[in-house]
Structures are given as structure tokens and as C-alpha cells.
Amino acid sequence: MDLTGQASGSRADASSGGSFPNPSQWLVDAVSGTLVRLGGTILAAAQHDVDWAMGQDGQGADFVSRTPPSISYQSPSVRELADRVRAAANVALAAIAMWAGYQVMAGSRTRGAASVQTAMEVLPRLALGALLANTSLSWGALAIDGANALGSLAGPVVLPGRDIARDLPMVLELVASGLVYWLVALLLVLQQLMRLALVDALLVLSPLALLLWTLPQTQAWGRLWNDLFLTAVFAQPVQMLVLKLGTLLLGELRGGGPLVSLFLAVGVGYLVLKLPGMLRGGLVRGGGGMGAGALAMVVAGRQLGRVAGIGR
Length: 312
Prior knowledge:
- By secondary structure, the protein is mainly alpha-helical.
- It has one domain (25-75, 136-308).
- 79% of the residues lie in helices and 0% in strands.
- It has ten helices and no strands.
- It has helices at residues 2-18, 23-53, 76-108, 114-134, 136-152, 162-166, 172-211, 219-252, 257-286, 290-308.
């Protein structure tokens, strides 16, 4: 039996030692290894960009979780362009005042006492238009500070599943899931960049936009600016609250494994991307009554921020 065992062992060794590698398996392993290495390189680059955008590398400005004043209403470029638009708004206000005065004088010859009511309607509108047009950046700063204070109430916000996605085992399935995760994260960064550019553009146009409320014929354009600005500014605190909720939910589902955690994080990220559109649709359907509610949110946010010691 010993000889038989030795012979069989010798044949097995010879067979294993003399066999050639399976070409198809070798190709699969080579392709998988290449994809894993390429995916790891892309993951590292995406992580760096997202960390910079959220200010987690100590160099970025964190425009994802808040609206930095330094690159919005305190930006020299924004203030310079807003001053030019304000000058144009004052010229337009003077033209509106001349036109309104002509209408009042023309009406006094035909309607008599009715012109007094017309003047009483026009003068407060002109005064309010002058006030809003020349203090537009202050109102924009108030809204941005209030939104930042509301967003800060949730505490420090990080992307759900960020730690899991940073330390993934280099397995093809997890690398592919990680690429989807960081793609959604980059889309969120891109969305916040576009939001910041929109906020700055609306701040520049704010003197003319607030002047549009002076005339009934142009109030629809003023309402459009109002809806865009409120959505762009106040959608961000809601997004940060959902991200915080996603992080807490991931902490409750630790036993599901990295793949399940990544799927949940991707779902939360996709929901966050859709939130501005949802809020914009609700704002448009809500009509002009949303302005008073937003002003109340601004005041409440700033007061809560001061009480909590959060600041700007």
C-alpha cells in the first residue's frame, strides 16, 4: 500500500508540475486585475476631488454643505457686478418714476379724484423698489446666513458610507460598486458648483430683480427670480439633513456588509440629487405665499444659529 500510495503521489506531482495554465482563466485574471488597478486609481482621484470640495483635506472651501460667504455675497467680483447692476436699476427706477408721474398727471385731467388713489398706490411701490434695489445684497446675505445656520444645526456632515468607500477591498465587485458611489458623489459636487454659480448670478441680478416688484406688469419676472433664489439657497440645508440621516442609517445597518452599505449610500445620494427639483416644483405650486415662509425660515435659522453658538 505504501508503494501504491507513493506511485499515485508521484503521478499527481508529475501531472500538476507538467500541466499548462488554463489560457481562459489566465485571461480572466489578467483582465480582472487590470480593471481593479484602474478602478483603484479612479477611486483615489474621485476621493481627492470630493474631499477638496467638502473641505475635508484642509484646503477646500466646503461649498457642498454650506454657501461660503467669501465666494458668494462677500466675493469682490459679485459685489462689483452687483454695484453695476444697482446703478442700472436706479436709472430704471428714475424712468419708472417719470412714467408713473406722467400717468398720474394725465389721469388727473380725466378722472379727477381718482388720481389721488393712483398716486397713493405708485409712491409706496417706488419707495419700496428703491429700498430693495439698493439693499439687495444685504437681503441676499441674510438669506444665505440663515440657510447656513439651518444646515449647521445637523452638525458635521460627511457623505454616507465615505469611510467604507475609502477602504474597499480590491475585489472587482466592490470596486465597481465604489465607482458608482463616487460617481454619485462627484455628481453632487457638480450640482453644488452649479448651485453656487446660480446663487452668485442671482445675487448680481438682485437689484433689478427686486425692482421688478414695483410694477404689476413685471411682477411675474420678479417672482421667477424669487423662486430660483429661494430654491438655490434653501435646498442645501434640506440636502445636508438627508445626508446626515443617511449616515445615521448606515450606522444602524453595519451587519449588512460593504456592498449593502454602498447600495444604501448610493440611494441616499441619488435622493439628495433629486431634492432641489422636488422643492422647486413645490415652491412653484405654492405660489407667492412661500416668500413669507422663507423669510421666517431665515430669521429662525439665524436665531437658532446664534443660540447654538454655530455662527456662520
